[in-house]
Amino acid sequence: MERQDQRIGLLSAVPMGAVLLISFLAPLMVIAIFSVMPQKVFSLLHLPDFSSYKLLFTQGYIKSVLWSFGMAMASTAILFVICWPLAFGMAKVFKGFGLFITIAVVITLFVSENIRLFGWVLTLMKGGLIEGHLRAWTGLTFEGALYNVPVIVFGLVYAYFPFMLFPLIQGIAMVPDDARQAAADLGASRRQIFFEVDLPLSAPGIVIGSLLSFVLAAGAMAESKLLGGQTVIVIADEIETAFTYGQNWPLGSALSVVLILIIGALSIFGINRVNLDLIMGGRRS
Asked: Measured between alpha carbons, how far apart are the two ends of the chain, in Å?
């Protein structure tokens, strides 16, 4: 009976497995093969050549990788600090009002990210909403807040705020109130309750939210282009340039493979430390 159930399960998984193979694995395999082709070729019918990977170190692409991951880490850390108090309030304090906040946050996702970022460009640019009103009311002026690293990080925080907030809410909601009350009754301070009860028990939500925010920020390009100009060239921008203007598919593929490998390794590292059953509503063992 058990073997029959396994066979039925395997047969049922065949259609979805085929879809994943065609739509997900096949493009990745093409990218991986192209990454070892000679420079500026548009066919896979060549002998392997690892020159594209060598360019990572000789043409300064490592700097773009470091900028991307550095800003992704910074934005993820800022998002955690910003989202934790709000997530805690929505999960434990004002649960009814939390629905209103959830709707307000979700509605922002109905508008294209690029349009929202253009709104910030018009707000922060010289002669824009802030500088224009400041000059009209006080006579003071400044050069605008665009085209620097802090404003790019601000754009990442703004764009990926929901992806940190909602997993944190789920993680904090899994922390039993009895555990916090018991710790307080035993004389634990608020700091001890936070570090020894709240953080460890809400770790699944923290890890998932951090992974989502970090992965999206590491591969983001619109923020650096619209808010940062040419101040910083991120790896996603280098990949787009290689595939389009540079017409160098092997180089673009090699840069993509490096980005995928780094993000994949970090994601697997984080997921291995999370009990996904808890996040999906399973029971705590």
From this structure: 28
